[in-house]
## 1
Amino acid sequence: MALLEVQGIGKHFRGLRALHDVSFSIPQGAIHAMIGPNGAGKTTCFNVIAGVYKPDGGSIRFDGKPIDGLRPDQICRAGIGRTFQVVKPFPGLSVLDNVVVGALNATADVAQARKEAMRVLELLHLADKAKHPAASLTLPERKRVEVARAMATGPRLLLLDEVMAGLRPTEVDEMVAVFRRVNQETGLTILLIEHVMRAVMALAQHIVVLHYGEKISEGAPQEVVNDPKVLECYLGEEAL
Amino acid sequence: MFDLYLNAAVGGALTGLVYGLMALGLSVIFGVVRVVNFAHGEMMTAAMYGAVVLAQAFKLDPLVAMAPIAVAMFILGYGLQRGLVNAFVTRPEHTQFMLLVAVAIILSNGQLTAFGPDTATVQVDYALDSYQFGALIIGKVQVIAAATALAVSAALFAFFRFTLTGRAIRACADNYLGAQVVGLNVRHLYGLTFGIGAACLGAAGCLQLLLSNVTPLQGPSYTLLAFIIVIVGGMGSLTGALLSGLLVGVSEALAGAMFDPSAKSMFTFALLILVLLFRPQGLLGRRP
Amino acid sequence: MKVLLAGLPPRAVVALGLFLLLLLVAPWVVNGYLLSLLVVMLYFAYAGQAWNVMMGFAGQLSLGHSLYVGLGAYAAAMMFTKFGVNPWVGLLVAVATTTAMGAIIGFLAFRFGIGGVYFAILTIAFSEFVRIGFDHWTWLGGSAGLFLPVANRSSNDLLNLRGAPVMFYYVMLAMCVAALAFCRWLLGSRLGYYWQAIRENEDAAAALGIPVFRYKMFAVMISSAMTAFAGVFYAFYYNNLFPEQIFSMGRSIEIILGPIIGGLGTLIGPILGAFVLTPLADGLSELLQWAGIDVPGVKQVFYGVCLLLVIVFLPNGIWPVLARRLKLEREH
């Protein structure tokens, strides 16, 4: 059975149609990617799943239970962790404390949360920065802190919004290895929005393509990148 | 009984227009610089004392004193923005707040030190003249103050709509980064905005002096009044500020006439609480 | 005890111990005037600590904390003068009253998504609203004030909080120590982490599973409950209550100056701020009197200039800088 099942969701902002009748599903333990030109509605789709916006219509089921209409914190507690495209770290707190806040979702015991936070930081190669204030980090590091925070909440599904942007190719490969390892070891299901195709091709087993708020294609990576409709939407944008 | 309320309401509306002009200054500053001027009432008090001094020294009518006072307040506002506030534009809200609280404390107590705790006032020779329309009696000063407040507000609207500088300031308010990109001197424009807001306040202070007297520690209550008017009208909406000034003026006057004059601001606070709860963007404001 | 001191370098523990010892023996050393000054310092340290929970920890700016002081003071004074209930029982009524008030303000504001400056102005509005209400509530003295029977200053009756200044001093000191320990515990708990997350970024906090509304309510209610203690103390120490004074916006600002100057969100900040500001202002008054300058407002102008200088040059307050210099910071 699918872990996440999105059925015909739509979202309007005043006159703007940001999402229209989008459906897809992610099986337990899979890594899926969502791609599309800028403004295609990818982040809006994340925000609808994560409870920031209520969908105008359609349904979202997580592990068989409907979750649309829940608040962001309820969705997190249901088992969906997310990062933000525009990073929102807690600048005044240390990197460790940032992640501890996430880990406290799974346990009320602060000592245990600190242990879990340290473990996640090590996994993401951030352990040496644990005591630095989050405000002092570079942008790619801050994105990693966001990933760490979201992972520390103990999610079953992780929504990653452009966490590879701005990384050097070797760093991208490092992150890819981390996500692949976590996915294999713990069975964590991942949905990522990504422009870095190197990461998408290396990680995703299945890709959903959005354009102007609609799903125009989906399938295995090789099929999708050769789909003429996908090429057209990207090239069309380039031609502008 | 009805006559009493009618008189109160009309008088309140006229006073309300002066309140509106005062709040307009706050609204202009907040709408553009995005800083809440917590020293607003104190700055207006300074303007009122300025007018008192001019009246005592040169026998200047507050209406005439309006011009030099507005200019002085413009300079004060411009200087305050460039010298102090500008460094805080990107800081957290509470630091901006505390900065202006500090300025407010210094201003109001400086006035206390300079002018003593007693009330000061200016007596104009037309203070007791009035017009009568049937049962309605309105004071000449109130009419003059309200008309002048309207004229100054109109000039302000015209400035923002028709002049190049006014449009540039509006551009800054809409899009700070964009304004910088197209080469506007944002720092200067912010200074101008703060100056214009302060000049409005100077004019409002002179008009208020015709209607009431001035005490050194009155600042906070005027600051609060200005806030309430701006929030009720909608932050950043100029027409909203004027309209809600009118509303607050009328509600104050009616509450004073129907209940107890000392309880009149309770109605203003109640109005604020209601608006914050049910229409937080204000009467004419847009939702952020 | 151990948990509260965990992570502090030994020199910080020693410094804290010495400071406490100094405060404990102070009444035997100082004269009556200095003792009353110390009481005021401790009072502001306590009230600042209570305010700091809301703003420093959870990021909700209240500019109307005199509301809780006033309500707490009036509740306990009413129980004492009208019903003969002792202040410790009155304290329960006071805490219940201020917590309920805080809950009402918090519920209304946070339900409708009112934050930042709007929330601050709402707190002022409520405080002014209640002030005017008390001004007209003649049963509790109205604007003419509510008076407690003046204490017999020679014998100490702790149960009825009637006694000599030394007794009040120790009560206030105990309150400050308790507040410090309580806040330390809060900050190290899940509650404290969640508050700080909300202070730093509400959206991110919600995405990490924090029910933001509920935790903001906790902040307002705990802070207003703590402030009630200060109000009860005020009522029984000064023995007179005037709505005009106790609910005034100036009082609210006096409460928040200490934590801001000392260091917002820190545990020592409110104490340091109160211990710096109160003697400075008082010393200045003394100095001015000695110099024969008796002009009203000079002291407050000085207050304002201090505040301005700290905000411009030490935006995070004195304590973070001082702690780093003296190597008294907590190890993570």
## 2
Amino acid sequence: MSLVRRLRVLLVDDEPALTDVLEPVLSSAGHQVSCASTASDGIKSAASLNPDVILLDLGLPDMDGKQSIAQIRTSSSVPIIVISARHQEAEKIAALDAGADDYVNKPFEIGELMARMRAAVRRHETTSRHLSRFKSRELEIDFGARTVRLLGQEVKLSPKEFDLLATLANQAGQVVTHKRLLNAGWGGASQDTQYLRTYMALLRQKLEEDPSEPRLIVTEPGVGYRLKVNDV
Amino acid sequence: MTTPTALRHLATLRPRWPDWTWLHDIDAPRLAATAVLFALATAASFLAQDFEKPVTAALVYVLGVTLIGATQGPMLALISALLAAAIYNFAIAEPAFVFRFAGLDDFVPLVAFSICALTSGVLAGRLKSKAQQSQRSAEELLSLLEISKAFQRAVTPSDLPDLIALFEPSKHNIEVVLYARQNDEMELIASTVHEPTEPALRELAHETMRRRAPVGDGGGWTAYPLIGAEGAFGALLVRLRDHPQPRATRAAIDAFVNMVGLTLERCLLHERLATSRAIERSEAFKTTLLSSVSHDMRTPLTTISASVSGLIDYGDSLSRDTQLQLLGAIREQCDRLNRYTANLLNLSRLQSGIDVGRLPVIDLIDVIGGATNAIRPRLGTRTIHKALEINSLLVKADPILLEQVLLNILENAVAYSPDGSAIKIRLTREPGHARLEVVDQGIGIPPAELERVFERFHRVEQHRGQTAGSGLGLAIAKGFVEAIGGTIHAQSPSKDGAGTAIIIRLKLAETHP
């Protein structure tokens, strides 16, 4: 792991056993970790510590998760990754709609958590610079020319397929909800995820080595899709 | 609507012309009463003869016959009228004591007298039997109303046999068999027949439900389909008993079928509703259990997974102390998973019931010792103060479960009270009981929650600063304590001024010398 950026991480979780473990491990990976055990403390710290990323447990005792995300969002655009032991799709979608950038299911592995943190931070920085290009190990997208290259080879996409892929790439590494994808492809005219599934299947046909076992465009069941990023 | 229907049917219960039932109304007391009245009328008539004209005597006689008709019925009035005509002609009309028709002058008053006596006597008698009949109808109506009220109170199909008995099949001289279709099976709900020829009757019930019309079997049984909002749901089979005077008219039977049908439909619906409510409750319980299990299993698993992946991926860059800390966390969380599993198992053990008779006699001091030892590693800087009755207090209980109960309560005390505070365990003797109290100096329980903390999966959600329990601990405590005949309740603020007290009272075991 070369070129590890030192991130200021705010961890909001009411489970002391977990914060006691995450804190030293994230620190030893070079990050600076602060902890809060309630939503109200977390909201205060988000304002005062100006973290690069917030890890937020959804099951905090003093406030509903969506509410605390919305509160943080009133003053900050900091990436928020939700960590939750309750794996209900509706809850995840609600958290994403409220302004969370991504979510990680409990239990998780620290490697996965750190990859998500990096993706969230990177996306946060690129959006402020208005991205014109996307490049990962396999995939290269030119947003201006609307061209896509897979392993150097140009791939022909229909306009709708390109819009969907661009939406995923704009938030590469993070989950994008069905609703956002439908908005991107159909301008919100359709709420039918069946269309979406059809177009995602077409995209996979063109981009995946084995569309039945996707490695680039992965499904987040009941929530949306995620463009996997393998760093260049 | 049972009652109006019954009323409508009752309106058709009026006797139909010709109705000769009043002919049966003659019996010994009535004959005697008629004889007395007739004798009085005859005597009065003889006396009246002395006043000027025999017409007075005739009027008195007619009055007597009318009275007989009004009180004793038309048949006796008829007989009295004929007798009176004879006596009048023979003994009163001039010349007395001779049957004689001298001429038209004598004949006309006699015929007039006979017609008057006859008409007024019979008419009065008819009126009397009409009155009797309407009184019977009113009585029948009242009893039907009573029955229909009772039918309306019925809740389950098992109430129906008693209600059918209330209708008094014996009085109405009918026999009744009632079937309901439950899950495509014909279920016998009620029967007044001692040896129901089941298969044949069942077949008849099927037949009437299929045709949705009354069906007879040729052997006296008539089957009526019971039809509700969702089609035919049962059948009522009725047989008129062999009896010289069957009283149940077709209309009465119709009313009865109607009433039974409506009641049975309501009972079946009620029963289905109750079943679906029970299923709903058990589904809700399963959902809560699953959500609790997923949350309470995943929380320790998350720490374990983070520690293990941290050690594997970043072990080299971690200090020796951090490595040990992660390993310690793994062990601790494994313990926690183990405790949670034990509580889940205890819960299922409680649900399957405790055999109180086979519980051993144990000393509460030992249980307290075990639980305090188990909680000590998790106390942090909190302290435990014990104030215990020195004499041993013996109770009948499962020692492992009781220790778990106390441990659950102590865990809550630790979870909800600040570092450095004291947790008190008090054991005192009350007449016939041991009182065990755990008092903390924690955040306490809002008054509205005091009862609910003992519900399964209930957690006091506000101001929780520390690791919360699974919401099973106190539920298990209550379940077990009550299973062995004790009581448990929460007090907040405790008598000591702050925090929460959980108070358990257990019956002392009888110690035989």
